Amino acid sequence: MDINIALLPGDGIGPEIIAEATKVLDRTAAKFGHRIRYTEALVGAAAIDATGNPYPDTTHCICREADAVLFGAIGDPKYDNNPKAKVRPEQGLLRMRKALGLFANLRPVTVYEPLVDRSPLKADVVRGTDFICVRELTSGIYFGRQGRDRHDTRAYDTCTYTIDEIEQVLRVAFRLAGTRRRHLTVVDKANVLETSRMWRETAQRTACEYPDVTVDFMFVDNAAMQIIRRPTDFDVIVTENMFGDILTDEASVISGSLGMLSSASIGAKCALFEPVHGSYPQAAGKDIANPMAAVLSAALLLEHLGLGAEGRAVRKAIDRTLAAGVVTEDLTAPGQRSYRTSAVGDFIAAQI
Ligand SMILES: NC(=O)c1ccc[n+]([C@@H]2O[C@H](COP(=O)([O-])OP(=O)(O)OC[C@H]3O[C@@H](n4cnc5c(N)ncnc54)[C@H](O)[C@@H]3O)[C@@H](O)[C@H]2O)c1
Ligand SMILES: CC(C)[C@H](C(=O)O)[C@@H](O)C(=O)O
Ligand SMILES: [Mg+2]
């Protein structure tokens, strides 16, 4: 099969982890007889530096024409530390998600057996964790009206959801739950927020169409606690944009490192695969970042293209790499040797 991938490495550790993901993809393609063509494009701070625009039109065209997009990370301290900056790398990521219609972001949270003791949580609590958070990705407070009054003394961000926006992401979550343990948890703040009450109403109505899926509702503050107190109780979680962002960084603690969490951002026409983590600027250029989230995102990409055996081969290679203890410093036990980003990528590729 000929596979056309838009490659958006972005900023910070983005280029380093994407280099390892493509290393593994190339090896997988060679093994299974596929041909991958990458078209690289700019996004984030790298795109601002080159063009003044964090999501240039050329990048958008390359993404739209590709079979799938593989994205690294964006973000740079020179913008993080300047709240008055007019153009920001994060705008590139948000515009891209909106322009490509990527309304559902699937973030699997699992724990690999060799890493059960790498979490600060008890091994017995995290062992067996296997849930997916479906995060709404193109609406809510991230895309509402925002600004300041003319005296620059009051700032606002508004959270808006339409029933259609809620329904389309709920359907993704219900269908996904139907293929798993048939248990959906809707996370909201319906005791306070009107948008959340609309989420809850819409979920109750939509649930009638999926009678084999049991649904429960949980307030986000309680969910933040329950996810790390009893993670194995969850199967599929669905929630709005900002709650999903925060809960999944928290959930990465179960997996041992944020460097283990992959994701798929899905729309009607396009699909993009991205680690959950950011550009981790402190590690940029040091060859120390964990490339596994990016490699696992590449596995999700293969599976999305219907290449299940290829995706499984990548996952098996990750299993073997973890079992061999070939991990970056974020995952090492005291006294255990750590490996460089590129060495971990080499090892994973060699296991395919
Ligand atoms: N999707 C994205 O591109 C994305 C996501 C989150 C943050 N950001 C941006 O990234 C920049 C840095 O933000 P931040 O520090 O809050 O979040 P971050 O995810 O970059 O890093 C937070 C912490 O997580 C750990 N970490 C993250 N990725 C890792 C990896 N691959 N291997 C090992 N450890 C890893 C590190 O301890 C790091 O200090 C900001 O500019 C932010 O806006 C981008
Ligand atoms: C960088 C930021 C805009 C982004 C988000 O909040 O969606 C990031 O945290 C993520 O999780 O992909
Ligand atoms: Mg985030």
Automatic annotation (TrEMBL):
One Pfam family matching this protein: Iso_dh
Pathway(s) the chain acts in: Amino-acid biosynthesis; L-leucine biosynthesis; L-leucine from 3-methyl-2-oxobutanoate: step 3/4
GO CC, any one term: cytosol
Cofactor(s), names only, from the UniProt record: Mn(2+); Mg(2+)
UniProt: Mg(2+) binding residues: D221, D245, D249
Cofactor note: Binds 1 Mg(2+) or Mn(2+) ion per subunit.
Keywords: Amino-acid biosynthesis, Branched-chain amino acid biosynthesis, Cytoplasm, Leucine biosynthesis, Magnesium, Manganese, Metal-binding, NAD, Oxidoreductase
Top-rank taxon, per record: Bacteria
GO MF annotation terms: 3-isopropylmalate dehydrogenase activity; magnesium ion binding; NAD binding
PROSITE patterns listed in its UniProt record: IDH_IMDH
Binding site for substrate: R97, R107, R135, D221
Coiled coil feature spans: none
GO biological process, one term: L-leucine biosynthetic process
InterPro entries the record matches: IsoCit/isopropylmalate_DH_CS, IsoPropMal-DH-like_dom, Isopropylmalate_DH
Catalytic function, reaction form: (2R,3S)-3-isopropylmalate + NAD(+) = 4-methyl-2-oxopentanoate + CO2 + NADH
Enzyme's top EC category: oxidoreductase
Site (Important for catalysis): Y142, K189
Location within or outside the cell: Cytoplasm
EC number: 1.1.1.85
PANTHER family given in the database record: 3-ISOPROPYLMALATE DEHYDROGENASE
Family assignment from sequence similarity: Belongs to the isocitrate and isopropylmalate dehydrogenases family. LeuB type 1 subfamily.
SUBUNIT field: Homodimer.
Function summary: Catalyzes the oxidation of 3-carboxy-2-hydroxy-4-methylpentanoate (3-isopropylmalate) to 3-carboxy-4-methyl-2-oxopentanoate. The product decarboxylates to 4-methyl-2 oxopentanoate.
Name the record gives this protein: 3-isopropylmalate dehydrogenase
Species of provenance: Alistipes communis
